[in-house]
Design brief:
275 residues, Rossmann fold, 9 helices, globular
């Protein structure tokens, strides 16, 4: 029941109608008896500042930020967590007694999903396609664990900027001008949006894939890349685990309690299976 005491949390982005987050978070709140409801808010670009300031004005617990506002949201916050500063983007805002603090749980969510899939990055050679926001979030952690990280992007300026930043984390990070370096990698990660839409090409040449590769995608469905990799016998990991764990971590930041993981996962999967 919604009462005058019910708190709010939500998702700010555009579009947000496809989001699986409300079902997952509301299941968590209900299970723990937390009087809060999570809603999705489509926000026009010129109203982003107003939307974020309303988190403080309306006493929200906090909010998630999604495409296309993860970078733009920073200017409206009071403080930014260290990892979000490095990444240059936030996906979670915590209302800390009126102070809006930005976090980025995407990278930690990715690492938890890899751990859950039985994949360790320690000592591994990683190749990543993409140097955008998703890549920044996860390479912050990959660079610390992998033996080597090679990154390719068609945008040479964006690629160079990411590699320069990552060199502060690990010296074994390199920019690639083509995807040929996949053949020497243990793990391939697609951090581009290629594969999100029907008819998209593969982000890499499929002839470079080998059975020993572990192939991952930040998109939370089995993309053409993952389908192709599975046909070759590769272990594959899609982005659904990353979506789940970044949400769990956000939930714990808002509530200062341990998230009911099984309950939230079941709610997420119920929504996912209806897509």
């Amino acid at each position: 029941m919604i009462t005058a005491h019910t708190k709010l949390a939500g998702l700010i982005g555009n579009p947000v109608g496809h989001s699986l987050s409300p079902a997952m978070h509301n299941a968590g709140f209900e299970h723990l008896g937390i009087d809060c409801r999570y809603m999705a808010f489509p926000v026009a670009p010129d109203l982003l500042g107003d939307a974020i300031r309303s988190i403080r004005a309306l006493h929200f617990l906090g909010a998630n930020i999604t495409i296309p506002y993860k970078e733009k949201a920073i200017q409206f916050l009071d403080d930014i967590h260290e990892e979000a500063k490095f990444i240059g983007a936030v996906n979670t805002i915590v209302n800390d007694n009126g102070r809006l603090v930005g976090h980025n749980t995407d990278g930690r969510g990715f690492m938890r999903s890899m751990e859950e899939a039985g994949v360790t990055l320690t000592g591994k050679r990683v190749f990543m396609a993409g140097a955008g926001g998703a890549a920044r979030a996860i390479t912050y952690y990959i660079a610390k664990e992998a033996a080597q990280l090679r990154i390719f992007d068609v945008d040479a300026v964006k690629l160079a900027a990411l590699v320069d930043d990552l060199k502060k984390v690990s010296p074994d990070v390199y920019a690639e001008s083509s995807t040929n370096a996949i053949t020497a990698a243990d793990i391939l990660i697609n951090a581009t949006p290629i594969g999100l839409h029907y008819g998209d090409p593969l982000p890499v040449d499929k002839t470079l894939l080998r059975e020993h590769h572990i192939v991952c995608d930040v998109i939370y469905k089995d993309t053409p890349l993952l389908v192709e990799a599975k046909s070759l016998g590769c272990l594959t990991v899609n982005g659904l685990g990353m979506l789940f764990w970044q949400g769990v971590l956000a939930f714990e930041l808002w509530t200062n309690t341990t998230a009911p993981v099984d309950v939230m996962r079941n709610a997420l999967m119920d929504g996912y299976n209806r897509l």
